[in-house]
Every structure is written in C-alpha cells, then in structure tokens.
Request: fold
Amino acid sequence: MPASFVSQRFGQLEYFDRQLGRPAWRGKSVLDFGGNAGNLLRHARGRIAPSRYCAIDVSRDAVAAGRRTYPEATFLFYDRHHPTFNPGGIPELAPPDPGRRFDVVLAFSVFTHLGGDELRQLIPRLASFLVPGGVLAFTFFDPHHRPSPAGPEVNVLGWRLGAIGTPAAVRRHLERRARGARCCAVVDRRRLFRDEEPMPPWVAGRPVPYLTFFTSAYLAELFPGATITADPSGHHCCRLPRGAGGASVTLNPGGEAGMVRP
Ligand SMILES: C[S@@+](CC[C@H](N)C(=O)[O-])C[C@H]1O[C@@H](n2cnc3c(N)ncnc32)[C@H](O)[C@@H]1O
Reply:
C-alpha cells in the first residue's frame, strides 16, 4: 500500500486562537477533524492536554504517526474514500463516533478538499459531537475573495492554483470558468467543475489532487447561524455554535449541495 499523507504544516492552533477570539484553551476538549498526525497539538505548548485531544483522519500513516507521538491522545482512522488522501477507502462512509463530546471541533484545511455533498453530510454530524454551548470551526477557500496572500490582484482561486503548480495559461482559463460560481472544485490541477456540474468517476487507487472552493455567501445560506470571517492567511473561517439548549447545527433545507460526487 503506498504511503499516505503526513502533514508537515504548523500554525493551526494560532489560526483558530485568532479566529475564535483567544479562548481559554486549558481544560478544553478538542476534536481535530482531519487532524492528520496531531500537529495542532504539537504546537499547543501545553494549552491542550493530549488526553483531551482526539483526531479523526482518513490518512492511515498520519493516524499511526499521531498514535506513536501522543499515546495519551486519541487518533481514529476513518476509512472513507478521498481521491487524494485515501483513494482505496469506502465512499460515503459515516464518520466514527468518538464516544465522547467536545468543547471545540476544529477542521483546518479539510473542507478545502471535500465537495459540497460531503460538507452537507459531515458538518451537522460533527456538530452533534459538541457539548451544548460548544463551537465548531472549519476553514474554507472563498474562490473570488481578494486580496489573497499572492497579492491584491490575485483572488484565492488563482493563489491556490499557483500554489499547486497549474500553468499560468491554464490558470487564467480556469479563473474565467469559475467566474460567478458559488462553489467549484479543481481536479488534477487543470480540470474545474463549477456548482452542480457532475464529476467523472474517480480512477480507483490513483491519488488525484482535489481542491474545493465555496463562496462565503453559499456557506452563509447553507448554514444559517454561521459566522464567517476572512483571515490574512487566505483561509476563511466558518464558525458554528451548538445551541445552549443542545440544538444542533441546522442545514438550510433549500440549500443545494454543489459538486455532486459520483
Ligand atoms: C491538507 S491536510 C490538513 C491536515 C491538518 N489539518 C493540518 O493542518 O496539517 C487535509 C487532511 O484532511 C484529511 N481528510 C481528508 N478527507 C477527510 C475526511 N473525509 N475525514 C477526515 N479527514 C479527512 C486528510 O487525510 C488530511 O490529513
């Protein structure tokens, strides 16, 4: 079996600390959805106790690495298909129930790789893992937002296409195709699907780069009650509280799922 992705990225906790208004992390239980090998915990510098940390991820090697580094934390392997991170996984598998509830559920750069149907399915489920009064926050890419970290003239879609090595001419073409789209996905660096355009079936077993984008307006419509904010990092944040009475996140019944997966 080929090795699966183990993240070398850091700064996730600083990001959510900024976005959530510098909460008191000490004593809080945290579910890190798509938490990979637990890099968020590594840089928490004692603010999050490993015993109060749980990550769920579809990358088998990242989960194994996390378990080795933090034996007191919980790392759950989720064998769901993902075209990049787990091409041999099971399509549409529901996430495992961690068996406890969390003060905070975070997902950094995970819904930047999942389509609208998965977003609609997973967000209410993740919100159900919160204690009453808890908060769920996830990052997303708003394709049309500017400035992006690549400069005032470059929108987030162009910035990400540049980052994954899409040639400039193809990038200009894809940016034109995405104009006015509420959501879109880029597959294999050069194929763009907008809104509800169906995608071709994934080639089983071959990892394929897959990036997704949602406008802030689309998410605000899909999740009434969400707070959406931009960030200098280029990653927007969508924050959803679980109602104090325990009511879970509501999904607008009229909200369309973009990017239908085969
Ligand atoms: C770009 S990486 C970000 C990893 C980590 N959050 C970080 O910042 O280093 C995306 C992560 O999402 C995970 N992932 C993809 N689809 C997932 C799913 N349906 N459920 C849970 N994790 C998923 C991948 O395996 C990968 O670890």
User: Anything to note?
Assistant: The beta strands are 30-33, 53-57, 74-77, 102-107, 130-140, 183-187, 191-194, 210-214, 227-229, 236-241. Confidence is low (pLDDT under 50) at residues 254-262. Residues 101 and 129 are 5 Å apart (CA to CA). Residues 5, 7, 9, 12, 33-36, 39, 56-59, 62, 78, 80, 82, 85, 108-110, 113-114 surround S-adenosylmethionine (CB under 6 Å).
